[in-house]
Amino acid sequence: MTIDPLRTSEETLEKYRNYVNPSIANLLKFAGFAVPEKDASGIYIRDLAGNEYLDCVGGFGAFSLGHLHPRVVQAVQNQLQKEALKSHYFMSTELADLCELLSEVTPGDLQYSFICNSGTEAVEGALKAARAHTGRPVFVGAINGFHGKTFGSLSVSGREVYKKPFYPLLPETRHVPFGDSAAMAEAVDERTAAVILEVIQGEGGVILPPGGYLRDVRRICDERGALLILDEVRTAFGRTGEMFASEHYGVIPDIVTMAKALGGGVMPIGAFSAKPPIWHSLFDANPYLHSSTFGGNPLACAAAVAAIRATIDEDLCDRSAALGEKLLSGLQEMTARHPAHIKEARGKGLLAGIEFLLDDFAALVITACGRRKLLVAYSLNNPKVIRIEPPLIISKTELDRAISIIDESVSETAKMVEGLG
Predict the structure, then answer these.
(1) Among 13, 93, 185, 257, whose CB has the most other CB atoms within 10 angstroms?
(2) Are the beta carbons of 357 and 341 closer than 8 angstroms?
(3) 36-68+315-420 adopts what CATH topology?
């Protein structure tokens, strides 16, 4: 059967408007992405019209191994021949194997893990674990932090535009500037259950912590008896050049959350891992105090084990570190060529951001990149920033091509903006 790309695109767009999300439909059409995806492999996505895009959005971190990594696909196919979902009446070998592997690769003594379906679910579980262990009500997060959009996760996130329509949210949450140790020391007290921070703020615009900041937060939490939750949903599994971004800063959390790359780009999965005393507080009195019907299903666990093994066996942490230096160097050279329009390029590993000086400049650059068949990411909590998050398997040649396209797109946008001025 031959597919008519134009007709299918129009039909899909109409279905989005009628049944999915009219605003998303209009936005995608305006940005030039109204043709549906057809397939994807490696670092490329193809649409129904035959266009092939170099993917430097990377599923916002989900495609660290690229699209359809053969090792992960094979693991899922093998598992599907045996069992897809668990019955909950018996133990699961796949779940046990994954939790054992997570205890080996997570920093410090984070021995136990709960497997769920997404990053925001992982954060919800981490918040509950902190409350159960400390008996305290207050959570402290960072301004412009992003932890998800369910109620608890949204409550500890730090941008009002996504929170205000849903008030009241979780009570007794506080937010302080990211990187400000003095403000954190003032906010954390004897009523604080936990501080929750991204190691590197992703949706906030790829904001790296100042030197010594995370160590200060660790010390403050220890002094006040609060827990430290590090959100590594975006940064875990090699994205920044280490298996976990916290390893760059020598800080071990009490609880870590993860998702995105954990599923190897094939299955949705999230998890949170914690130290043994926290686990005992959460589950000893009632082993079902926190549970999930689909969390820890064999298919997702098989994918996650394969994804972690592939990350290790293919030395993707070291690859990310090396290519990240190349990426950042290229973006900083580009910044020097456009001082009137770019404030800064920053990043760690294959997670980089370019912050522009003007509102809407980033959105125009994203559109210009799209016309050149390159996908880069928008930052929800800082619309002046575009993010570059390619799969860790990207080649040097493809990375050079991406940098060149971004440079061309910035130049085009600059000329347009200057012409309007």
Answers:
(1) 257
(2) yes
(3) Aspartate Aminotransferase, domain 1 (3.90.1150)
User: Could you give the CA distance from residue 384 to residue 355 in angstroms, rounded to a whole number?
Assistant: 6
Q: Is the pLDDT of residue 213 over 90?
A: yes
Instruction: Classify domain 70-313 by CATH architecture.
Output: 3-Layer(aba) Sandwich (3.40)
What is the distance between the alpha carbons of residues 181 and 347, in angstroms, rounded to a whole number?
21
So where are the chain's domains? 36-68+315-420, 70-313
pTM above 0.85, yes or no: yes
In angstroms, how far is the first alpha carbon of the chain from the final one?
51
Q: Are 236 and 273 in contact (CB under 8 A)?
A: no
Tell me the average pLDDT across 121-125.
98
Residue 375 has pLDDT above 80, yes or no: yes
Q: How far apart are CA 146 and CA 272, in angstroms?
A: 16
- CA neighbours closer than 13 Å in the CB half-sphere of residue 207: 21
Q: How far apart are the C-alpha atoms of 301 and 295, rounded to whole Å?
A: 9
Cβ–Cβ contacts within 10 Å for residue 235, how many? 28
**CB contact set of 47 (below 8 Å; sequence gap of 6+):** 5, 35, 36, 37, 38, 53
Determine the average pLDDT of the residues in 311-324.
Answer: 98
- Which whole number is the average pLDDT over 183-210? 98
Distance from C-alpha of 84 to C-alpha of 201, rounded to nearest angstrom: 35
pLDDT mean over 381-397: 96
**How many residues does this entry show for the chain?**
421
